[in-house]
Design goal:
disordered C terminus; four-stranded antiparallel beta sheet; 5 helices; alpha+beta; single chain; six-stranded mixed beta sheet
Amino acid sequence: GRRFAFAGDEASGLPFILGGTEALTADPGETVALSVHLLEGIDPLEVYAQIVPPDLDLSTAITTLDRIPLTRTGPNSWTWSATIPAPNEPGEHTLVFHADYSDGEETKPSEPHFGSLTVLSNNALLGDVNGDGLVTPADAMLAFECWLNGICPVGGSSLAANVCDPASTGITPTDAQAIFGLYMGLSPVCAGELGVGDRRLAPEISHFGVGTASPWRHP
């Protein structure tokens, strides 16, 4: 007979995925780790993830995507994981995690868990938060709003805003200050977490040497 019964829509998925990978950022081809945590006590038939490219309609084409199998991290663990290379296509890819369960003679899917995988462009301009191809005070203001609100406004790129220490911190006011300093033609200094000038910032954002006037500075 049936194993599972929940109130509401009979076709709705089982609420058995408790959490998983939320947001990742990687260069094309960089190794990334995916994971999902399931409700304890009920073994799934299959746990897998799918990566939805930026230009694919999630609602109609997900069945055409490859399944990435996730494996249990230990005999007593309720976490499943996989390590994969990031796609080569830049942009924000949607991660969709699934778990399928036996329900009598049927296979019942869980409610999916969604995350994101942002693949950086090799030509991306760090600090260009609004994506207009320039670094201006508007970018610094957007970066500050990203920190203040905990999320970037529509049209703002969290990747471009996090210039000082993207490997270990989120967006901070220091990032906004560094972006404005770059616009002014100053040597980019990321205080706070790093406490020193950020070597990563100058070549990737400014494309000009320390002490050289910024090409975006007002005449």
